[in-house]
Design goal:
- By secondary structure, the chain is of the alpha+beta class.
- The model has no long low-confidence stretch (mean pLDDT 94).
- The strands form three sheets. Strands 1-6-7-8 form a four-stranded mixed sheet.
- It contains ten helices and eleven strands.
- α1 packs across α2, α4 packs across α5 and α7 crosses α9.
Length: 395
């Protein structure tokens, strides 16, 4: 059980953060394959730095991918459209280093091949899912606030409310809890890339007026009643300014924001990243299933908090373990919940893919602002369509 009074922090990043640019490029490649070849195999990694994007990995598909055109399209959509941001979709160099999937891995995943004839997991590993009652989305509040702040940064940039903002940015939110309820946000941190227009005469500091504008247009609208005037400490660009940002200032790679992508550190993480991986990779598909299970358990009223872990062995269909932890919030034992999970939910890789309808071009949208708590079309793992069945089985 959690302590009665504690403070917890989560962070998020904008779509223009270099690591997130890479995630979106890798998932755009995956979407192109899923659109034309739903049975294609994709493990795509992207690396970006000043003026350069490298796309590599292992892909087996019957379709053609124009990698340079795809990369430039993603970078343009994100907002790197001017050399003043240090990275420009028109002029950046793009290197294609994609190869084929290993035949040894392929035979373990392809149904009817390999040692086990069912479609097996694409790798060993453990995956974690979680849900709780802190928000309407059944997600932890700190990570949801962090995502909302980053979305708001992107919105006021794209709508030119704050036209001097650049695509790169980060947020960090500290939430204070008492007796299980969020009572305040004692500290919020924003890093927001900007142009020279809002640098003061010293050349070293962002203007006070620009920082105040971020408070009024980004922080306060998101935090609402949790922002306490005179009590909430807010920090914008703590080094003084953030004029040099994006790939010019920070090398990006696919898969480096796994806590941002999931639950903000609220629960353990299996370690596997999501972006650029087709659904035969259980790092992704089984993590989505874990969230689906946990969310349905909480939505059904069987628990107020629920943590799920699945684990797999490469080439094998059945999970090697199923773990449920309701953190003492359920009238049922964790062992009883495990039995219910096994009875109701599909846990083999092929079944997960079919149940959640994962062989579709739905992935690029997941690659920024979190994979969970997204009640948008295509996020099938966020549905709560097993609630009545759970209630019935649980009695």
């Amino acid at each position: 059980m959690k302590p009665k009074h504690y403070i917890f922090t989560s962070e998020s990043v904008t779509e223009g953060h270099p690591d997130k640019v890479c995630d979106q490029i890798s998932d755009a490649v995956l979407d192109k394959v899923m659109l034309d070849d739903p049975n294609g195999r994709v493990a795509c990694e992207t690396f970006i730095t000043t003026g350069l994007a490298i796309v590599g990995g292992e892909i087996t598909t019957t379709t053609y991918i124009d990698v340079p055109e795809l990369v430039r399209g993603v970078v343009k959509d994100i907002g790197y459209v001017n050399p003043r941001y240090g990275f420009d979709y028109k002029s950046c160099a793009i290197l294609n280093a994609i190869g084929h999937q290993s035949l040894d891995i392929s035979q373990g995943v392809t149904e009817g091949e390999g040692e086990f004839k069912e479609q097996g997991a694409g790798d060993q590993g453990l995956m974690v899912g979680y849900a709780c009652r802190e928000t309407d989305e059944l997600m932890p509040l700190p990570i949801m606030l962090a995502h909302r702040l980053c979305r708001q940064l992107a919105r006021v940039r794209k709508e030119k409310v704050l036209p001097w903002l650049g695509p790169d940015g980060k947020s960090q939110v500290t939430v204070e809890y008492k007796d299980g309820q969020a009572i305040a946000v004692p500290r919020v941190v924003i890093a927001a890339q900007h142009t020279s227009e809002v640098v003061d005469p010293t050349g070293k500091l962002m203007t006070v007026e620009a920082k105040q504008a971020i408070l009024e247009e980004v922080i306060k609208p998101v935090l609402k009643d949790l922002y306490k005037e005179g009590e909430t400490i807010w920090i914008v660009n703590g080094t003084g300014k953030f004029e040099i940002g994006g790939p010019q200032s920070d090398t990006g790679m696919t898969g480096r924001k796994i806590i941002v992508d999931t639950y903000g550190g609220e629960v353990p993480h299996g370690g596997g990243a999501f972006s650029g991986k087709d659904p035969s990779k259980v790092d992704r598909s089984a993590s989505y299933m874990c969230r689906y299970i946990a969310k349905n358990i909480v939505a059904s009223g069987l628990a107020d908090r629920c943590e799920i872990q699945l684990a797999y062995a490469i080439g094998m269909a059945e999970p090697v373990s199923v773990y449920v932890n309701a953190h003492g919030t359920s009238k049922l034992s964790d062992e009883e919940l495990v039995k219910i999970v096994r009875d109701i939910f599909a846990l083999k890789p092929k079944e997960i893919i079919e149940m959640l309808d994962l062989r579709r071009p739905i992935y690029r949208r997941t690659a920024a602002y979190g994979h969970f708590g997204r009640e948008e079309e295509g996020f099938t793992w966020e549905l709560t369509d097993k609630v009545e069945e759970l209630k019935k089985v649980a009695g």
